[in-house]
Design a protein that fits this description.
single chain; 210 residues; alpha/beta; TIM Barrel; two-stranded antiparallel ribbon
Length: 210
């Protein structure tokens, strides 16, 4: 089974084009004002993608008004919840919006992985990401966790791997974890929030070889 990639935190036509040309299966838009990658939903909606590329919105404990605006304005096919959303909240979001829902699980220890099982029947996909320091952004920090923690873990749901990925380590990450979907943001940037088209192309070339 080939490895697919989501390029997250996109905000320009040039970087969207680089992701699509490189074969990304998903593109991500961040709707979180504290993030350097924050984008207005209507602006994201003007960034065109072909029909086979999934459009995922990233949120942190969003209210219904923001979700409604972003799903419609950005033409999202899915939402990624990166905050403290409970299984009940995740299930309610999925039922109301009718799009796929991902739930991010912050990981530092093997015990952290057990939280994924709580979202069985609520989320469509789990995203394992590195747990960030208290008070920091919940993702997009370029931090990674010990990928060996996933060795032998029985995943309750389809899943993706995120956190500290780049062109130099994605092969190791996939080889260690068995991931078939990888999610990258800061690893294809020249500065926080500034995506680099050459880094996007190189990362996707690397994943296409796996």
């Amino acid at each position: 089974m080939p490895v697919s990639a989501k390029i997250c935190g996109l905000s320009t036509a040039e970087t969207i084009d680089a992701a699509v040309r490189g074969g990304a299966s998903h593109v991500g838009f961040v709707f979180f004002p504290k993030s350097p990658r924050d984008i207005e939903p209507d602006r994201a909606g003007r960034l065109a993608t072909p029909g086979h590329v999934e459009r995922i919105g990233v949120f942190v404990d969003p209210d219904d008004a923001l979700l409604n605006h972003a799903v419609a304005g950005a033409r999202l096919t899915g939402v990624q919840l990166h905050g403290d959303e409970t299984p009940e909240r995740v299930a309610a979001v999925k039922a109301r919006l009718g799009v796929q829902v991902w739930k991010a699980i912050p990981v530092r220890t093997r015990a952290d992985l057990e939280a994924a099982a709580r979202y069985r029947g609520a989320a469509d996909r789990i995203l394992y990401d590195a747990r960030t320091p208290k008070g920091a952004l919940p993702g997009g920090m370029g931090l990674r966790f010990d990928w060996a923690l996933l060795d032998g873990f029985s995943h309750p749901l389809p899943w993706a791997l995120s956190g500290g990925l780049d062109v130099g380590n994605v092969a190791d990450a996939v080889g260690t974890t068995g991931a078939r979907l990888v999610d990258i943001s800061s690893g294809v940037e020249s500065a926080p929030g500034i995506k680099d088209v050459d880094k996007i192309a190189a990362f996707l070339q690397a994943t296409n070889r796996l």
